[in-house]
Amino acid sequence: MTRILITDPIHEDGIRLLKEVGRVNVKTGMTNKQLLREIGSYDVLVVRSATKVSKEVIEAGKKLRMIARAGVGLDNIDVEAAERRNIKVVNSPEALTIAVAELTLGLMLSLARQIPSADFSTKRGRWEKAKFMGMELRDKTLGIVGTGRIGRAVGYKAKAFLMNLLAYDVAPNKEFKEKTGCKYVDLQTLLRGSDFVTLHVALTSQTRHMISKRELGLMKPTAFLINTSRGEVVDEAALVEALRGKRIAGAALDVYEKEPPLSSPLLKLDNVILTPHIGASTIEAQREASVIVARKIKESFGLMIYSLPRE
Ligand code: NAD
Q1: Residue nearest to atom 39 of ligand 1 (CA)
Q2: Do 288 and 171 belong to one domain?
Q3: Which of 268, 233, 266, 232 has its CA nearest to residue 251?
């Protein structure tokens, strides 16, 4: 009987599917010591971001055949150590696309209309109509850096707001270009020509600090930067400098170089909107993330059984 250990809360629909694969134990909030003691008897470990699946945990998992991350980042899993032991690692990035794209649109509207500041002011009994003169998204240019799953979803939604699209990606997407009429350009041209720049690249050695002092210097002084990808894609110190000097109009960030950004100078700036890495935090995305990894586990075990020699 396949034994499955779930150590972070995942949506019950995924758990229900996993029960079709084997015996499931949900044990959230375990200490590392407890996990090291338990893991030895399980074939599959399912986590989200809280459980640290270190080399020690992987070595202690003598029977482990699969580690599943309901969600995207694999930063909490020592993938190399798992691969060395032939343990398959799966995740479910495809589940989060709409949630992150919708948050990005929300941040763009929040920047254009200063919604968070207007709320703050009105709740303090003020009525500052003149202060909150905003701008429309219609006919503005959105520059999308990275047209993968999320970047494209943002682009399709921005079209509904009648925006013009510029895009930059090492692998341009023909269908997206044809359907939206977006123009693929180099990064410099995108930065110079956009009213909003939104980042959706994966974090790699090439994209780390892809937006730094030089790139921020190319943006229009009236332009806004939105980052819902990974904090390290932006050189945060350079961004703080650009925001302080009003080199750009503002920014909205869901992700940070260090999370939570407790001692960051960003917290003191007026021209930035900050959210606590909530891109994937919707009921729908979490449900889908758990169901998708459960399906991947199911398929994988199905294939393993199928590939056994027949009598
Ligand atoms: P994806 O892999 O579908 O797309 C990434 C795109 O980046 C690809 O089209 C790829 O060609 C492009 N790219 C890679 N390197 C590049 C480079 N050097 N220059 C230009 N383009 C490059 O990924 P996705 O699912 O769309 O996710 C995008 C980002 O969103 C990731 O960084 C992911 O970690 C992040 N994310 C954040 C949250 C959140 O909670 N805020 C949730 C999910 C995903």
Answers
A1: 279
A2: no
A3: 266
Question: Is residue 309 assigned to a domain?
Answer: no
Number of domains in the chain: 2
pTM above 0.85, yes or no: yes
* CA 72–ligand 1 middle distance (angstroms): 10
Domain range for 164: 97-274
CA 201 – ligand 1 centroid, Å: 3
Phi, psi of 264 (to 5 degrees): -75, 140
pLDDT, tens digit, 9 for 90 and up, residues 120-168: 999 999 999 999 999 999 999 999 999 999 999 999 999 999 999 999 9
Q: Name, in order, each residue with C-beta under 8 angstroms of 5's C-beta and a sequence gap of 6 or more.
A: 25, 27, 38, 39, 42, 44, 45, 46
Tokens of 223: 């332009």
As a whole number of angstroms, the distance between CA 142 and CA 166 comes to 6
Residue pair 137/108 in contact (Cβ under 8 Å)? The answer is yes
Q: pLDDT, tens digit, for every residue of 41-64?
A: 999 999 999 999 999 999 999 999
Question: Residues enclosing ligand 1, CB less than 6 A?
Answer: 72-73, 93, 96, 100, 146-151, 168-171, 200-204, 206-207, 228-230, 254-255, 277, 279-280
